[in-house]
Amino acid sequence: MIERVVKDVRTETYNSLKEVKEKLDYLRKISRKGIHSLSDEKIEEFKLETKKFFNVIFSLFADTYPKKLFRVTNNKQLCNGKKQKLQKVSQLIGPPKNKSFFGRCNLPGESVFYAALDFKTALWETKPEIGDYITVSEWRIKKGERLNTHMIFHPRLSKINYDSKKAFVAWLAAKRQINPEWADIFEELVIFLTEEYMKIVDYTERENYLISGLYSSILIQTPPDENGFKIDAICYPSIKMEYGLTNLAIVNSLVLKKLELVEIKVYDVQETNYDVNNKNTSDLIKVSPMIIKTSDFDLEGDKINYDLKAELRLAIELHEKYGGKENTPANT
Q1: Backbone dihedral region of 91: left (phi > 0), alpha (psi from -120 to 50 degrees) or beta?
Q2: Quick one: which of 237, 249, 274, 289 has its CA closest to 123?
Q3: 3-class DSSP state for residue 306?
Q4: pTM of structure
Q5: Domain boundaries, position 11
Q6: Do 92 and 224 belong to one domain?
Q7: Which residues, 6+ apart, have CB-to-CB distance to 38 below 8 Å?
């Protein structure tokens, strides 16, 4: 069985399509059986074998300008389980490297900022529970900046969502510009990788993210090339929204450089309605009407500035309105 996609990088000689497909089927078999079931030693061997095989990187990227990005941070994970407001801007981005495990777009020890293009998808991806204190941050790309984004799509499932359709059209255009033999190989690689990015993974078996995490690492953790070009982010369909909407994973070190933090809202979750048969419901969660929000941030000082007087006024208003029952659930 072949070890690499490209037999000779200097002469751009590829192994045959048949050999590449055979290797991909071998990798599929292990992935479907469950990488989490392997020993730590075998997982490391499989990671090195997979990385060695992908000695050609195919990236379909675009300059992405989403109007808004949403990220949900569960405060209890950063406040020792307590219902407290976050105090630092750095708490709103990806986790520190020493608290990073396998993710869909990262390997352990790599910090990645995960966000969604709409609030509902951000909720579905994180699924806060009753009693949780969550901070929803809203972001946008800074004026004058751009986000070089690799698009995840399936060449044979082009109608998954709007972003996948755009990527599919771009792929058809790219396909006409390259060697037909390479195009067939690239298509098989894209199909395999997309299967991995769209794979359902149990939170307790995060090792099964290894292949998509590895490929993502190669794409977004690599320093800029000699021309200064770098892939900053990966755009992929939301698994929990049945691929209809889109998530974005951005290398953490670029978040505050490329993105502007617009506003945060702090919610106390009172009810949840994660009904898989009604993904488009408008009330995934209901929250306490005591909603704290701010758009005042000290980025240099890494501080979130809250308006304590406004919070006090709101608390008084709610007390007068609800007669001491300020935790009456309200739609977000």
Answers
A1: alpha
A2: 274
A3: coil
A4: 0.87
A5: 1-56
A6: yes
A7: 30, 46, 207
